[in-house]
Amino acid sequence: MRPVWYAVGLVFLGLGIVGVALPVMPTVPFLLVSAWAFSRSSPKLRQKIREHPTYGPPVRAWQERGAVGLVAKIWAIGAMSAGVGLSFWLGLPGWVVAIQGAICFLVGVYIASRPPA
User: Fold this and answer.
1) Which of 57, 78, 79, 99 has a CA that sits 20 to 30 A from residue 106's CA?
2) Residues 61 and 74 in one domain
């Protein structure tokens, strides 16, 4: 299974790197998955992610305390709200918007309930 976890880690690390360049794509969530996968395949790479000067602190905060920074909470909840609003504005069927809204609401409550980083 190590090669599978290593591949998963590399894919999500790549997505995290893309997220650095694209403002609409998050970086830290992909690095969290990458660090998780590397913990099962390459502890050295996991440690490199955790020690990164910019992205390491939020990864460590999540792994150690389940903490999310205030700015990240605002961006996450704002982006989810904008996504639901866009779906409504585009005229997607009401049931689709309702399901999307319900899921985003529950995720938003979970994110808001996390301790501050």
Assistant:
1) 57
2) no
CB–CB of 9/42 below 8 Å? yes
Q: Which two tokens stand for residue 37?
A: 């996968």
Q: Is the pLDDT of residue 25 over 90?
A: no
Instruction: Look up residue 108 and give its two tokens.
Output: 């938003």
Q: How many domains does the chain have?
A: 2
Task: Give the 3-state secondary structure of residue 116.
Answer: strand
Identity at 23, one-letter amino acid code: P
DSSP state of 53: T
**Strand, coil or helix: 68:** strand
Q: Rounded to an integer, what distance in angstroms lies between the CA atom of residue 63 and that of residue 55? A: 13
69: its two tokens: 């920074």
- With a threshold of 0.85, does the pTM exceed it? no
pLDDT at 26 over 90: no
